[in-house]
Amino acid sequence: MITEKKEKILVLATAQRNALRLIDYGFSIALANDGELHILHIQKGNSVFDGRHTLKRLQELIDYGSRLGACIHVQCDMDVARCIGSFVEKEEITRVVMGESGQEENEKALSECDRILEVIPEEVRLHVVAREEVQLQRMIV
């Protein structure tokens, strides 16, 4: 008998309010597929204690994700994309949820996004969630 691989959904969360929408999106996928929800925040550098506001937002994400039954992961690394790739492989993630980069983002942020896309294996389904402003514009048009 062949057993189907359990869905493991990973939400890539930054310490920003938009992350709550990403978590909700990932939660809905997990719920619909009887899957596991994982939330990963990677702080670039050696410590998550880089600022009062970051820590407060991170605590909000952890509390919110915990209430949804998610497995919360917080890591520090200088190479965020490599860290994500290693995590996806190690945890056998089947879907990755990430936010869309805004047009106001600088080239460094865009290249980081490209690097993340490169490290996610082809068999992993990628869900890129549009920014809230873009969704509102689409609804108006």
Give short descriptive properties of this protein.
globular, 141 residues, 5-stranded parallel β-sheet, 5 strands, alpha/beta, 5 helices, disordered C terminus, Rossmann fold
Question: Summed up, what is this model?
Answer:
With 141 residues, the protein is α/β, with parallel strands linked by helices. The chain has five helices and five strands; from the N terminus they run E-H-E-H-E-H-E-H-E-H. Helix content is 46%, strand content 22%.
CATH architecture: 3-Layer(aba) Sandwich
Order of strands in the sheet with the most strands?
A: 3-2-1-4-5
Classify the fold: give the CATH topology.
Rossmann fold
Q: Could you give the distance between the termini?
A: 50 Å
Q: What would the average pLDDT be, to the nearest integer?
A: 84
CATH superfamily: HUPs
Count of helical segments?
5
How many domains in all?
A: 1
Sheet having the most strands: 5 strands, parallel
Overview of the structural elements:
- This protein is α/β, with parallel strands linked by helices and 141 residues long.
- The chain has a single domain (8-140), classed as 3-Layer(aba) Sandwich (Rossmann fold), CATH 3.40.50.
- It has helices at 18-32, 52-67, 80-91, 107-119, 132-140; strands at residues 8-12, 36-44, 71-77, 95-99, 125-129.
- Helix 3 (80-91) packs parallel to helix 4 (107-119).
Describe the secondary structure blueprint for this structure.
Elements: E1 8-12, H1 18-32, E2 36-44, H2 52-67, E3 71-77, H3 80-91, E4 95-99, H4 107-119, E5 125-129, H5 132-140
Parallel strand pairs: 1-2, 1-4, 2-3, 4-5
